[in-house]
Structure formats: C-alpha cells, structure tokens
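Example 3.2
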Amino acid sequence: MVPPRLELAVYGLVAAPVLHLADEHGILAALLAEGPLTARAAAERTGTDHDTVERMLLVLTAFGIVERADGGEFAVPGEMAPFLDGAGPDHIGGFVQHMVDESAGRLAALEDLLRRGSDAVDADRPAPYDRFYRDEASTGAFLQAMWDLSYGVSQELAELAALDGHRHLVDVGGANGPFAVAALEWAPGLTAVVFDLPEVAPHLEETRRRHGLADRLAFQAGDFFVDDLPEGDLIALGYVLSNWPDAERLALLRKAHAACAPGGRVLVMERLFDDGRRGPISTAVMNLEMQVETRGRHRTGAEYRAMLAEAGFAGTEVRRSSRDKHLVIGTKPGQGCRCRSAAPTPRSGSGW
C-alpha cells in the first residue's frame, strides 16, 4: 500500500480544483447553510449535475474536508467551516482559485527553472506584477486572493502588533487593504494609507466604502522601488519581502527605515520556515511558488531579524500567530514621532 503521505501528494493534484469548483458553484455554501445534505439535494439546490456533485463530494470526504454520514448525507466539519464560509473573514476561496487558475499553470516553468535557474528564466519573463495586474479581471482575482489569504489572520496580527499609541500606519504593497482594515478596526485612534501600484486604487476604494473607513484610510499610488514611501510611525510589509531577491529586499527595508518616525516600528508579516527549515508545509509549498510566480523566497524568523538589523532597525522580535502568517517587528532607534496625527486626505477617485 502506498504510504498515506505519498498518496496525498500524488492525488492532491485533483483535490484543489475540486475544492475550488465546490466553492465556486455554491455546493459548500449549501452544505453549510442546510447540511447535512445528500449529493442529490446539494445538486438540486445549486443547479448542478447530481452524479458529478456526488463524485466531487466523495473526493472531499476522502481528503477529510467534508464528512459523509452512514445515510449518505454530506456535511462540513466544524473546524473547516470558517475557511469554507464565503461570507466569513477566514474564507480561503479566492486563494484556492489563485492556486488553481494561476499557480498550477505556472508550475510548468519548474522544468525550465531546473535546467537554467531563476536568473536566466526571470530575464525572459515579465515582472511579477505585470502578470498579476495584466488586465482588470486578473487584477481583481489576485486582490481577492490576497484578501482571502490575509484578512482573517490580520485580525490576529493586529492584536499581536500592539498598535495602541501609534498614530499613522503606512501599508506598503498593502493591496486592497486586508491588514490596514484589521489594524484600523483594532486601533480606533489610528489612520492608515495603502501605498501600492495605481491599478489597485479602485479596489481599495471599494474596501474603504464597504468598511466605512473613508475618513481614516487613504490610498497613495507609487512604485516602492522608484518612489519614496509615505512617512508614518508604523510601516507594514505584508507578503512583500518574500516576493523579491536580497538586493531589492534590503533596498526596500532601507526605504522603510527612512520613512519610519524615530521610535516607530516596521511590521514584517510573512510565512516563516521553522528554524530547521523542515516545514511547515504551507511555507515550503509557497516558497516554491515564490520561485515560479515572483522572484523571492520564504525565510526563517532569524533571517528576517537579521535583515531588519542590516537595514538599521533595533529591538527585533518574532511574534507568531496561530496560523501560517507571522509577525517580525523592528524598531527605529530614537525618541518621538514626526508622523502626522491628522487623518490623511483621500485622493479623489482612489482608495483600496
């Protein structure tokens, strides 16, 4: 018999697309709202083919994602429900869609990477965000994936960051604002600006509207490799440093140091390898994805602390969440804060 872990690796190729389609076509939502349901009942409620629904649910049952009762009804286990509930903050549907639609196709590049290496392959392909933001549809899909991947854990990271006493957050490469929103919800006296590429502006505007943050959350368009960063006493970098090689990473951290008020802090939020680099699985898999999709890699907490020290930050520490995204903090030496305390003025037609 094939060892169970090897079996999961072999057949996992099928599980992710099945999970995505079950989410996209409302099958999981039906189970959550009305389950336990038979496959036929789930198919009737979603207008889908009964035989295909049953086969998909049997796959998800075998992988432990749904449960099947002796009478044939299917249900979503309690520990899975928050992550499969499309209306909840922990929903991972957008990220699963990104993995299926974008990442899986790019894994074909591994053969080329094996033969020629990253430097040669990267020279022949467009920059990562030129691909992610190639049109409105791909931009929206990518940003939804980032929201699904980040907003739930950002609520925990905002608490871990101990934001009380800070006044102005600069969320560098902050996408459509998952961390900025969580931080503003956690710290009522805080204001924030998301600094990202211009394509992100309308998506941040929708976030501001949806969360009622027009007077506390602003957007500033820019390229963090070209432009100076806005000033603040909190500089956040969530899933940013892992996208880039060491030279670009250090240049960005030095820009963050320049933008940070004396006594302020930088918040690096990333997946972390354990000290022995034996896992966890999500970090190891996404470390490979960083090579395929971007130009970076994932690192240990100690490696990020060394990066922050090299850029001039002191008092570095790692604060781990209960999930797969963690917090590495550095403090800019000095007293006081030069950042503005007033709410930023939103740019007309922007936001994210």
